[in-house]
Amino acid sequence: MKGIDTIKEWVGALTELALMLLALAIVLSLLVGANLPFFGAVTANIMAWVKDMGGNGLVGLITLGIVLWLFSNRKMA
Fold it and tell me: Which of 3, 10, 32, 67 has the fewest CB atoms within 10 Å of its CB?
């Protein structure tokens, strides 16, 4: 069970790192503009994803709810 706990810790740490980099990319994109060398068009991609979710009606709303639930209820073991 120690191996599974180690894997869960790694996945949790990588997820937190990815979310921090996403937040940094959004802030930098708003401050500097969309032409960032390493982050690309992050805000444009997020807006396109939200538009796709909205265009799918109820299925998109359910999918968005599931994604938000996964991120909000995540606990570190």
Answer: 3
Name the helix (H) or strand (E) containing 2. Answer: helix 2-32
Among the listed residues 43, 39, 38, 46, the one whose alpha carbon sits nearest the alpha carbon of residue 67: 46
Model confidence pLDDT, tens digit, residues 25-69: 877 877 777 677 777 677 777 778 777 777 777 777 777 777 777
Q: What is the domain partition of the chain in residue ranges? A: 2-72
Contacts of 8 (CB under 8 A, 6+ apart): 76, 77
Task: Return the DSSP state at 1.
Answer: -
Structural contact between residues 29 and 46, judged by C-beta atoms closer than 8 angstroms: no
- Here the tokens at position 39 are 């982050």
